[in-house]
Design brief:
It contains 18 helices and 5 strands. The chain is α+β, with helices and mostly antiparallel strands and 407 residues long. Helix 8 runs parallel beside helix 11. The radius of gyration is 24 Å and the shape is globular. The N and C termini lie far apart (59 Å).
Length: 407
């Protein structure tokens, strides 16, 4: 097509900001959108509604307009109809105008009746969505692209619109949450088990044991976008964030983490192939582990640090002495005595303290119902959560929220 060179330039330019750019033809509009949203609607079982909304929009789009679309899932896209006999649309996105914090995502999930067990996977997806606070460069680039293709025969305008309403997701019955796509579930479980093992090694500074990286094939990374380089860049960004948090839990000072993570961000931007991205992620894992080994000031033994890290990463799940000991491959009695000896408190007290700290943060930063906050803290009974919270904080969850939000 006559616009191929201009499209490749635009794709390369916007790629520096991690913004996807695609060309969607009318006959494959639905599959194009499915690739763009990185599997979000598939995860939420909203593909049918998304298909209907996008087909309707594609059919009605007019020339000489930049459509800036805000969808129901906190993401923005920009669409532009291209000249030619066949209807072809340029699509840029997704991106967000502001960072989607953990608390904001949890609050939006409650508003849309999305069950909490889906939170880790949604958080993973949104970690790949670039934050673009100043959209002027993006809009100007797309306007220039449109004017070039249409030979400036018309003046362009920007039209803001919301995506057609998509029904809120009904809460999934427990038996439906994990029964579809057994092979996909096994791959996801394998990926997350590998990830947890890798993060534990970084937390403990086990540099020489990171040969674990070699046993996990690169193809196990889910292909969320069509461009393999963009896909691996997205995973590299996510990995750097996870590695940084693991190193922080291993006792590395934030100043050291900031310096190294900035260096990693620069290298991620320069990735030019899937293989290069895989090598960089291995180097980042080793680099963060070396920081832990040389800079750690946590003062706890590896089993206790790993136990603490597992608790912090799984506060919404059931946590018991026996399950944690099994996770660490040590006896419950040994873990209990070692944890008390090094920290001065029981493991149960530590778990309760961290759950109440999370609850206090969610009550302050979100408007979620107390019952939902309790679920994120791993406590199904809201009355029990309220009693624990009052015992630890001295006031009820409702009073805490009123006091903190009033400041």
């Amino acid at each position: 097509m006559f616009h191929d060179a201009a499209f490749q330039f635009l794709k390369s330019y916007l790629g520096r900001w991690m913004i996807q750019v695609s060309l969607c033809q009318e006959e494959d509009a639905v599959s194009c959108m499915a690739e763009m949203d990185m599997g979000l609607r598939r995860l939420l079982h909203m593909e049918k509604e998304g298909r209907s909304a996008f087909e309707s929009f594609f059919a009605s789009a007019a020339p000489y307009i930049l459509y800036r679309v805000q969808d129901a899932y906190l993401c923005r896209y920009i669409f532009l109809l291209l000249p030619g006999e066949k209807r072809v649309m340029l699509a840029a996105g997704p991106y967000t105008p502001m960072e989607i914090t953990r608390e904001r995502l949890q609050e939006e999930m409650e508003n849309r009746h999305i069950p909490p067990p889906l939170f880790p996977r949604l958080q993973d997806i949104f970690a790949s969505v670039p934050v673009i606070q100043d959209e002027s460069f993006l809009l100007n680039a797309l306007l220039s692209f449109g004017e070039t293709l249409w030979q400036k025969s018309h003046s362009f305008r920007i039209e803001d619109m919301s995506a057609p309403a998509e029904s809120p997701l009904p809460a999934l019955p427990p038996e439906q949450e994990d029964t579809s796509g057994s092979s996909d579930i096994r791959m996801i479980e394998k990926r997350y088990a590998y990830e947890n093992e890798l993060l534990a090694m970084i937390r403990d500074g086990h540099v020489h044991q990171l040969s674990l990286l070699q046993k996990f094939p690169a193809l196990a990374y889910e292909q969320r976008v069509a461009d393999p380089v963009r896909n691996i860049k997205n995973y590299a960004i996510i990995s750097s964030t996870l590695f940084r948090k693991a190193a922080e839990e291993g006792g590395v000072h934030p100043m050291q983490l900031n310096l190294y993570s900035s260096e990693c961000a620069t290298r991620i931007e320069r990735i030019s192939s899937f293989e290069e991205g895989g090598r960089l992620m291995q180097e980042m894992a080793v680099g963060y582990a070396k920081l832990v080994r040389s800079q750690s000031s946590a003062g706890f033994s590896p089993p206790v640090r790993r136990c603490m890290a597992h608790v912090m990463a799984n506060l919404s799940k059931e946590l018991t002495l026996h399950s944690l000991a099994e996770q660490l491959n040590i006896s419950p009695g040994y873990l209990s005595s070692l944890f008390k000896k090094e920290t001065g408190q029981t493991l149960t007290a530590f778990i309760t303290e961290k759950r109440m700290a999370l609850g206090a943060s969610l009550l302050k930063k979100t408007n979620m119902q107390v019952q939902t906050v309790a679920q994120y803290c791993g406590i199904a009974d809201v009355n029990y959560f309220s009693r624990l919270f009052k015992r630890i904080k001295g006031i009820s969850p409702q009073a805490w929220r009123a006091e903190k939000k009033g400041k």
